[in-house]
């Protein structure tokens, strides 16, 4: 386990916290869409760069070992 | 025969043909039939894994879930995305162990890591108990699609029988390579159709996506704020958590085929990094579900919402194309599940000694399982309804044993994890029989998991105190 692996914990925590975040449940719309929909799609898109960052670091480390 | 039915039946035949063309050479080897010789490239595995998330549930059930519970249905997006994060770490580890030790199934992994064939067999029986209803769900989906688009119950029965027969034929003929060949077609067709419908349905019925949500915010705000009874924040979180663990820790037996068939651990990790992007597609059926809320009466069958909207909006030939997309979203996962069920039986439940005997046991099980699922879908479609709700809740009970065995070989005595697994399954089944799939909005599987972990924890402490392994 390396510290860079924590990069995956940020989107995971944001996604799992979704139902308890009060600012997503106001009844208004963000960009014409439900805030909860915008929130989960946004964090879902951020999972990929976080995992690629980890994969790159791991592969560099394995290559150097 | 109506145009819609003719197009749908022709579509099913094309899907099966595509699956049969996936076969490379006559194979009498169960390993080649199940995991394709463990040499699939990154793109092939990507299509196989991406296809696993687009089932009859995604196509029909998710629209129905939005129709009844609003944004609570969004729990599917976090569960898939966070599940892929777990799989990013877990998948390559399982792939390496599988290649080294020759695993074909989840039961093989548990039996080997704990040194107990009994554990492999019992875990396989539990997996079959909760996976079989999921297979039946796909076959029921085949019938529901045609029944809704043609308005004729007989067409539904024809569709179920034809679809099941075709799945059996191409699965027996081509194994996992057949599933891969159909997965390319399935992902292309379902993406195209669901993407087009996510734009066309709101435009046709409400004047656009923006207008749908403006009206919902004004007329039905409770659907956008998790305020529907039985679909609140706790239900959202507990459903997502059970599904994340069941999915991300490889509790679903049919996930093992795609992981073990990969050509390298690196290809798997890259795929899991990119698959969350594909998960966003799940938002498309949700937009259709929100449109259905505005247009359809409250007594509409929720799972039929999408096809009801489509039937009233499109000409018959295009309804047929949508039906084909929904059918392929049932047939391909049904094929994966048939492979998952048959390999568990052949490798872990029936004590077939020779590889040849395993191969024929496997093939007989494909036929028997699909036939049984078809008969139940035709004769007693509601019989397994409660078990379907419990697929993830039940399969998550296998995940503590998997997670511990990833860490090291025989981390605790096999009887300890077996006792935990049994306690978890018993608590989940007992609670759901009395109270339903959720108790106080918390998924029944989490109560079972708590019992499971308590038994494993206590057993590990006793084992440590007595100094036995």
From TrEMBL, chain A:
The keyword Membrane belongs to this UniProt entry's keyword annotation: yes
Keywords assigned by UniProt, alphabetized: Membrane, Transmembrane, Transmembrane helix
Transmembrane segments annotated in the record for this chain: 36-55
Name of the protein this chain belongs to: DUF3311 domain-containing protein
Organism: Nocardiopsis suaedae
UniProtKB/TrEMBL annotation, chain B:
Membrane-crossing segments per the record: 6-22, 43-67, 73-95, 116-135, 155-176, 188-207, 234-260, 272-297, 317-345, 357-378, 384-407, 414-438, 444-462
Localization: Membrane
Entry-linked InterPro entries: Na/Glc_symporter_sf, Na/solute_symporter, Sodium:Solute_Symporter
Keyword Kinase appears in the UniProt entry: no
Coiled coil: none
Keyword Membrane assigned: yes
Domain of life: Bacteria
Family from the record: Belongs to the sodium:solute symporter (SSF) (TC 2.A.21) family.
Listed PANTHER family: MONOCARBOXYLIC ACID PERMEASE, SODIUM/PROLINE SYMPORTER-RELATED
Listed name of the protein: Sodium:solute symporter family protein
UniProt organism field: Nocardiopsis suaedae
